[in-house]
Amino acid sequence: MSAEDPPIVLRLAESEADLLSAQRLRYEVFIEELGGDGPLVDHAERLERDAFDPYFDHLVLVDRRRDPTTLTHVIGAYRVLPGDRRAAAGRFYSETEFDLGPLLKSGRNLLELGRSCVHRDHRGGTAMFHLWNGLAEYVLERDIEILFGAASFHGTDSAALAAPLSWLHHHHLAPPALRVRALPPNRQEMNLIPADRLDRKATLAATPALIKAYLRLGGFVSDGAWLDHAFNTTDVCLVMNTTEMSARHREFYLRKKGQPQ
Question: Which domains does the chain have, with CATH numbers?
Answer without folding.
Answer: 8-257 (3.40.630.30)
